[in-house]
Structure of Macro domain-containing protein:
Amino acid sequence: ALTGAFTPPPPTHKAAGGAGMARTFNFKQGTKLVIKQGDITTEDVDAIVNAANERMLGGGGVDGAIHRAAGPELVRACAQHPEVEPGVRCPTGEARITPGFRLPAKFVVHTVGPIYENDRESAPLLAAAYRSSIKVAQESGVGSISFPGISTGVFGYPWDKAAQVSLEAVDAALSEAGEANSVREVRFVLFGQKLYDIFVAEAEAFTAKE
Ligand code: AR6
């Protein structure tokens, strides 16, 4: 009765449950896609993406972790971005870039995902956050970039839907840039195993579609 219940993990799959699990895929225009479990603040890439809020002066979750690891210079660099309206430095769906200061990453791309309301309103805003992030990264010649699961924490986006929208948005942004694309590797760095598993499943379905 248990036949087929156990499938050996693929070679890139490290011990189940352990931090450091990672799977590698490819977007159709050639950029490498890595899905991994871990802490984004330790990523040794050109840029890490922060799931910020519109004020852009820090917060909880991954935002708090990035500000703690980058040091107090980060909030000062954020504050230098002008307010586009009172209290808003980065409207939802847009992105801003700063140096990474004490982080291994050279840059932090700050973006703001939506507070989840419903798919019709929230999906275009989540997609815009990813596309804007890729765009500002490309403008700085970024070759490798790590994303957290934007909006999957306090902003409450359902995880399976977030994974689908996120991967499709990055794929579209990379394709749109054409020859001008500098981004050769995109990583999703997910904190917990459940979100990691959901992103892996979506990447498998997504890359099989192409
Ligand atoms: N590395 C990777 N992922 C992390 C880390 C980390 N060090 N820490 C948390 N996560 P959230 P949001 C995951 O709530 O939903 C902030 O207060 C976390 O498990 O950080 O976009 C901002 O200032 C979750 O999967 O961001 C905003 O006000 C994901 O990162 C608001 O939260 C995002 O969770 C943004 O909400």
User: Anything to note?
Assistant: The helical segments are 61-70, 73-79, 119-139, 159-177, 193-209. The longest helix spans residues 119-139. DSSP finds five helices and seven strands in the chain. The radius of gyration is 17 Å.
